[in-house]
Amino acid sequence: MAAIAAVLAVIDQITKNWAVANLEELVPQPFLGEFLQLTLLYNTGAAWGLGSEITPVVTGLQIAIVIGVIVFALKAVRSPGYTLALGLILGGALGNIHDRLLRDPAPFHGAVVDFLELPHWPVFNIADMAVVGGAILIIALGLFGVAADPAADAPAPESQESRDTTPEEPR
């Protein structure tokens, strides 16, 4: 999970730094025709710009969620699917938290760099894709009955004590 998160956070930051260096703010550049455009946008809020007036609160909530994901993963996750999903969510969250903590205008008030734009959809970034992809994977795993810890759902082996206390059948 940590490796997945680290790779995603690095890719996210590389692409954001490229966007800041090469794109003009709010000027769409066709990438795949009109289907995908590159449009630099600085988002001080959460998803779709919500909460832009309370960036430090949004940052604090994101940090708390990251801590919760890590604790849950360390205690309860043994499934490769859930490990991948939580790695995606963690990597995406860390990429966006990095922006909030270290980008302008000030620490804890930073704006997340968004630059990918689809028709009729808010501008987003690689980190956002990872978070959404991880969430979709968790939903799919749940719908297909995949447990976060398959060993926890397995029947417990019969202990020696339970065999010793089982009454004998009459003869």
TrEMBL record:
Name the pathway: Protein modification; lipoprotein biosynthesis (signal peptide cleavage)
Q: Where does the protein end up? A: Cell membrane
Keyword Transmembrane helix on entry = yes
Keyword set, alphabetical order: Aspartyl protease, Cell membrane, Hydrolase, Membrane, Protease, Transmembrane, Transmembrane helix
For region Disordered, the annotated ranges are 151-171
Q: Chief localization class?
A: membrane
Instruction: Tell me the protein family, please.
Output: Belongs to the peptidase A8 family.
From the Swiss-Prot or TrEMBL record, give the protein name: Lipoprotein signal peptidase
Q: Organism, per UniProt?
A: Brachybacterium vulturis
Q: Which gene encodes it?
A: lspA
